[in-house]
Please model this.
Amino acid sequence: MTNWMLVAVLLGVMAVAYHLGLTRSRVMARAGNARRAAMHSRPGYYGALVALWCGLPAFLVFAVWNIAEPSLIRNAVVTMLSSEAGTMTSQQVGIAMQRIESIASGFGVAGDVTPVEAAAAAEMARLQAIGFYTKIALVMAIVLGGLVFAYRRIKPDFRARNHVEQIVRIAMFLASGVAILTTVGIVLSMVSETLRFFSFVSPLDFFFGTVWDPRFSTTGAAGGGYGILPLLSGTLLVSVVAMTVAVPVGLMTAIFLAEYATPRFRSIAKPVIEVLAGIPTIVYGVFALIVVGPFFSSVGAAIGLEIRATSALTAGFVMGIMLIPFISSLSDDIITQVPRSLRDASMGLGATRSETIRRVVLPAALPGVVGAVLLAASRAIGETMIVVLAAGNSPVLQGNPFEAVSTVTVTIVNQLTGDQDFASPQSLVAFALGLTLFVITLGLNVVALYIVRKYREQYD
Amino acid sequence: MNMANSQPGSMMTNTLGKAASQQMSREVTVSAQDVKVYYGDTQAIKGINLDIYRNEVIAFIGPSGCGKSTFLRVLNRMNDTIDGCRVEGKVTLDGEDIYDKSLDVVLLRARVGMVFQKPNPFPKSIFENIAYGPRLHGLASSKTDLEGIVESSLKRAGLWNEVKDRLDQPGTGLSGGQQQRLCIARTIAVSPEMILMDEPCSALDPIATAKVEELISELSREYTIAIVTHSMQQAARVSHRTAYFHLGDLIEVNATDKVFTQPEHELTEAYITGRFG
Amino acid sequence: MGRFPQGRHSSAQFDDELNSIHSHLLEMGRLAMQQVQRATTALTTGDLTLASRVLFDEAQVDRLEKIIDEECALVLARRQPAAGDLRMLIAASKGVADLERVGDEAAKLASMAEDNVRSGTSVAPYTMLHQLSVPVLALLERSLEALSRFDLQLAVEVTVDRRYRDVLGELLAKWPKVADRGAMIDLIWALRSLERVGDHARNLSEQAIFCISGKDIRHLSRDQLMDLLPGVSVP
Ligand SMILES: Nc1ncnc2c1ncn2[C@@H]1O[C@H](COP(=O)(O)OP(=O)(O)OP(=O)(O)O)[C@@H](O)[C@H]1O
Ligand SMILES: [Mg+2]
Model:
């Protein structure tokens, strides 16, 4: 609460600082005689610079302080505790500290408060109060310092614009750094967890094993089979089914929309199709489980085929429907990008519309369409919800789409839900699976983007 | 149609050819009667009557947006491919109504070829570019036949010597001028009677332009050519007759020599002397 | 500006260039006319200063000829003129040649005057020149007027005006007795020169007609002329 007030005050001060800088630079600009004219930059830049000098360092200190303060105080209290209550295990310390923090914040705890706890809590509250006032004093000092410093630097030849630009550039850089660092962080943590998993199970067994059967064990040792192949085959099977549905339908939709549909129809149909992409996958999953699966199995029964209600076919089919808009709208963009001049050339030579599409438009758009298909495939591989519900969860190495299968994503979900020790190989395998999946989809995406980009250059 | 080898010394034969064809029997190939074209509700062509004679080069000139391209596209029904475009009136090709229901547009477009403003070779090999039309219309019975057509078309377009060693390379890899001549060769490959050209040189440099103009003069011995151009000089150089369009009307058609020295209509005069607007 | 009947070009620069040629042509025409006038006066009055003045100014006529030719070439190269503009340039560069010849004739007359004064020849027989110079100069003036105003009617009237030739015929018919044979030949030469000036004036009008209407009326009969130029009355 009080922190927020401090932030508000800071912002207020910055606004004031902005005005100070603005006014001062204006006054200066007016004072300067006509020839040795005005200021280097527009007044707004001086204002902004003063405001930044006044606010930024203070904010930084404020942020660092807020991050560092709790652990410093905690350390101090823990030292005090251990000197008074003797050595404790780290677990005990944790529990004690939680109680003390609650007491100190005036929140209260269940049970009686021991004198030691009370003393520690008092000490903690004292430290917190000291910390708070010091923080305010420090931040305000920095604010004033920055203000005076920047204010005095305002001179006609001071290049405020360049400084502001520099600061903005650094800010942009840091912002983009956040995204990149996060990605790198995720990958690194996945790699390290995966390596931990490989200390239990050998990579050979993992990548080439044909049996997926991780047994639960209380000893923390790996038991059963950890072969990824059954999962990959399941993923592959579902994806293939999905692509067999999505590619022809999506592509034909795209061709129809791009080449034949009237603008009016197109303007209605395109958004409607794209709505398909916006449906949450859990809805697709439910749809697959409740409607499509039973339908397939009854159809199968009618024609004498044994089709499981939850099978690669069911999951793949519904996933294919989900991917239709993905393929159709990407391909539509790509097909409409084929220049009109090429169509004209073909029609001018006496080709019909479908001949033109077949012989000129599609070949020209092919690389782009392939890119779109690969992107869709990488989505299919990573898709989770539909397969969780509709694929049947049977991690067996086989190639029959009418049978239940399990995929990499489903297995990750299975391994991580339920009561598990995250340090056990049964959980750690999720990271190995995730990383494998990540590498595969990354590869597909890179190839797809490369193809799409190459295609784009073609008509420049 | 078998004048595959272009003759040298064409500068002279050009002027002779030009004079000769003006005196030649004026057999009407295309006849447009009261042609009106609408794009949706706006009228782009307001009732044009024009006869085009066999083996003449007729140039369409006029300020931007006056309907030259539109009228040109009327002649091979390329307007059909534009949504909301409607054509009224009668257009005959060798006496046949080309807007007749029974007429096959595919055959019409094979008879009346078109070359566009921007060179637009297909992203295929040079050979495939030329072979496209003949394949479409089944003009070649065998591979050697097709090769023959490709070769003679390229020769007639004056491109053979420049590309004969790289027929399998992409047509898009040629220079702008070569690409345009490739497009012309592609058009000739289906043996049309007439070639429509919509500003064929506007994307080309002077040398490439000169080559295309030279080619036009050569081709005019076998084909009827209608060319839209924004270059007065080009119209004056390559065409036998010039038609001046203005806001969807055909203002004046006359022998090119006459139009460029003493146009009849003051609008024509204003346009070609640069007094327009 | 805006002197041309067709109105202005999109390019004002082009207008300036054409206007400049036009006004140089008129300037040259007036100068040539003045030269003929002065040369005739010098010859009929034995005015040595006036004669040398004409000879001196001859350079000015030649200079204008060069300027106009250069301007025409530049416009041709820069603007690729067509129709009316093209005709104007062709007319100008042909008209310039005529005017230059007019200037030459004036110079001839002037040097004749100089010689006469030097050799003390009597000016008396030369006074008859006035009878020819007056209609010829009037013709030249009207021709320039037609060119200046782009007046087709006036130009046609000039081209068919052969009265000066009649005057010449009359003069030759009642040919005076001139004792000095040399002087007689000179006199004939002088008349001949003036006649040539009249011819050039008509040529100039023919160029004006080409420029204005695009019709080439050279070597046509009166009837053909009427056919070719409907709406123009041919006297
Ligand atoms: N596809 C179209 N849809 C709607 N209006 C069009 C279309 N094409 C042309 N027009 C209109 O028709 C008129 C004639 O166009 P057209 O393209 O024939 O002109 P143009 O003489 O070829 O001009 P330019 O010299 O610029 O090529 C213009 O007013 C134009 O706006
Ligand atoms: Mg056009």
Notes: Chain B has one domain: 8-272. Residues 157 and 215 of chain B are 7 Å apart (CA to CA). Chain B touches chain A at residues 76, 78, 81, 83, 105-110, 113-114, 116, 118, 120-124, 132-133, 136-137, 183, 186-187, 190 (CB under 8 Å). The longest helix of chain B spans residues 10-23.
